[in-house]
Design brief:
With 134 residues, the chain is α+β, with helices and mostly antiparallel strands. It contains four helices and eight strands, in the order βαββββαββαβα. Strands 1, 2, 3, 4, 5, 6, 7 and 8 form an eight-stranded antiparallel beta sheet that branches. It holds the Pfam family Pyridox_ox_2.
């Protein structure tokens, strides 16, 4: 039997901090979009860089977003963490602080806009495949 368990908030933050690529879900007009973004966790927020375009437009038009990170280990199972919150463009002192974070975009081009998701809810699950073989 496969063991499917909920993660507590501390475990969710640890897993969120362990990766640097996640998926941003946002609304743009009447559609939901999901795109990969490189990120870092800073305090209780997810921070990423972006360029002008649909991702940024979506955040400006509707700041209610979701951010998902997961991993699958062939032997052990998988986990998933979902953060929900409000996205905003960082400016002033917050932007200057965020510029010191190790944000390393994978795609080319200047990503001059820094966005933070202030996490309001954080949930996670782990699927343990080892329990199925025990």
């Amino acid at each position: 039997m496969i063991d499917n368990s909920w993660l507590d908030e501390t475990q969710c933050w640890e897993l969120l901090r362990s990766k640097d690529l996640g998926r941003l879900g946002y609304h743009l007009v009447d559609e939901v979009h999901i795109v990969p973004v490189n990120y870092v966790v800073d305090r209780q927020r997810v921070v990423f860089r972006t360029t002008p375009g649909s991702k940024l437009l979506g955040v400006v038009m509707d700041d209610d977003v979701a951010f998902e990170v997961d991993a699958a280990e062939a032997e052990d199972g998988a986990w998933s963490v979902l953060a929900r919150g409000r996205a905003r463009i960082l400016e002033g002192d917050e932007r200057r602080e965020a510029e010191q974070l190790p944000l390393q975009p994978w795609s080319s081009g200047e990503k001059l806009t820094i966005v933070a998701i202030d996490v309001q809810t954080l949930t996670g699950r782990r699927i343990d495949r080892r329990a199925a073989t025990a």
